[in-house]
Amino acid sequence: MALIPYDDRDGFIYMDGKMLPWREAKVHVLTHALHYGSCVFEGERAYNGKIFKSRQHSERLVKSAQILGMKIPMSVDEMEAVKLDIMKANNVTDGYMRVVAWRGAEQMGISAQATQTHIAFCTWEWPSYFSPEKRENGIKLKTAPWKRPAPDTAPTQAKAAGLYMICTISKHAVEAEGYDDALMLDYRGYVAEATGANIFLIKNGEVHTPPADCFLNGITRQTLMGLCKDHGIALHERHIKPEELSDFEECFLTGTAAEVTAVGSIDHHTFTVGPVVRKLRDAYEALVRA
Length: 290
Hints:
The protein folds into 2 domains: 12-124, D-amino Acid Aminotransferase, Chain A, domain 1 (2-Layer Sandwich), CATH 3.30.470.10; 132-288, D-amino Acid Aminotransferase, subunit A, domain 2 (D-amino Acid Aminotransferase, Chain A, domain 2), CATH 3.20.10. Helices cover 26% and strands 29% of the residues. It is built from 7 helices and 15 strands. The longest helix is centred in the first third of the chain and has 14 residues, at 54-67. The protein is globular, with a radius of gyration of 19 Å.
């Protein structure tokens, strides 16, 4: 199936206060964000016409921008209203929302004090990130060649575009070997996350997940931790060594795009798509459509 380029589609994009035809939403080649990674974004999903935890995403965008020294040129309330408008304009009820803010082309160089912060809202229909077969049997992961940086070397609590460069490199490397995604370790060598999703592991019916001390504390991650509590499933937030992976029976990833995706293997370690993964996956799907 041929891919449809994201710059050549029908519809509308809300950019810098204007509802533009999709193909007219453009930036200049000397935009600061393109050269220096001065960009933050949010990925959100809409179910039955309602974006799941929309306001939390908007608030996180503001926080990410503040970490990078940027000011979002809209209030959270204004962003929430625009999201509804752009969904209506594109006739999207079940789909994906991408909100992105970046430094413009007013100044070129490391210093960007004179740049304007731009913002755009885009939405489109987007089915599950992985195929139904992979969601049922579990995806295959391989340990990435790159590690998550230390929190004093990168703005790890911001959803910043530049932090995903090593994710793309890592995912490309393992995809070339037939894997679906990469497992990233942190700077200390502990299990961290996948390239765009947080990780949970299950042993003896109890859930274990790494503390988000050097990677993004995902909104879906926080939701699943709440679901564990609601369903009486013991949750342990702790550092996990790679050599412990063989001790676990089940594994899954969480993220706005991935939702709740079972993992069938990491390197030579195999997992079953068992009762805890299925219970939490069903609970999440019920919650987002409630």
